[in-house]
Design brief:
Blueprint: H1 22-40, H2 44-65, H3 72-82, H4 95-109, H5 117-128, E1 147-150, E2 157-161, H6 168-181, H7 193-207, H8 214-230, H9 238-244, H10 246-256, H11 263-297, H12 303-313, H13 326-333, H14 337-350, E3 353-355, E4 366-368
Antiparallel strand pairs: 1-2, 3-4
Helix pairs in contact: 1-11, 2-3, 2-4, 2-9, 2-11, 3-4, 4-5, 4-8, 6-7, 7-8, 7-11, 9-11, 13-14
Length: about 375
Amino acid sequence: MAKYNWQQNDWRQFKFSLEAVEHELLIFTEKLGRVSGILEGLPEETKQDVIVEIILAEAIKTSEIEGEYPSRKDVLFSIRKNLGLLHDTENIKDKSAVGLGELMIDVRNTFKDVLTEEKLFTWHKMLLGENKRVAIGQWRSHEEPMQVISGALGKEKVHYEAPPSSRVPEEMKQFIQWFNDTAPGGKLEIKKAPVRSAVAHLYFETIHPFEDGNGRIGRAIAEKALSQTIGRPVLLSLSRTIEASKKLYYDSLEKAQQSNEITPWMEYFIKTSLDAQTEAEEQIEFTLKKTRFFDRFKDKLNDRQLTVIRRMLEEGTKGFEGGMNARKYIGITKTSKATATRDMQRLVESGAFILAGKAGGRSTSYQVNL
């Protein structure tokens, strides 16, 4: 009996029911319109901040899903450079961050374009740069099986085995054709953005055409499918939502690769897309609060206080874990305990800080008052 979807007679004939997620699809469309409306009404600088923050979250989290942790600061530099907001990138130490930022902006800027083999190779080169360990910008060609494995040496568990390398060029030709045919105006057009995105991601991950980087390129394809289908660059981070419950993502993908009846995968992915859209709304609200905060306090903070507050706000909507205390303040600003205590006291008095932990002693901690 065929173990994987690509080994079965109905391979590529994906079947699914959307009955259980019709409500989610409706809300997704409503939220999409609302986010777009809010964004259009923002001042240009605030709008730019929102876009950068969401692209940054996607870049960081798509790598973290794969167990890689790029420098946040360097990825941010790269994104800002590729958006034309920054010209000097000599300060970027993490070279993988350069390509990651470049990839994110290219996916966004070229969303309307048809998908081609050349584009996928270009993305692969951006992502893996000078990596000498794997073949860059070409399909995998090694004879040994391409497997997704977990577990210690000698106790490995094979979760999935992709089609052999000899089949990849033809499989990818068919995938690219399908992707372009399901785009707006195509002969197999799929009108619901999360539905097309879900199939595109699963289909690509099943072929697993590269030696490395398949997960990150596959999520870029999912984003392209969303943007292309709605007709504008989508403003959400699928990877941030996926990374928050990574095991569920891998389990859902593994089950979906065992059959071409993919209803459970569609339900998982559509709910994930809706969660990502909700997070995007929260991100916009958070960015607006940040802007108002700095307008209110811009002339009342010294350089140390500004450094600490910016560091705290980098953590985004979930807040600075454990709050800010004297020990952390000293660590960030390299100042004395007396100065740290005085700085924080003034932040509390001005209303910039609010109490987060217990008052008094070492357990006293604060959050930024947004």
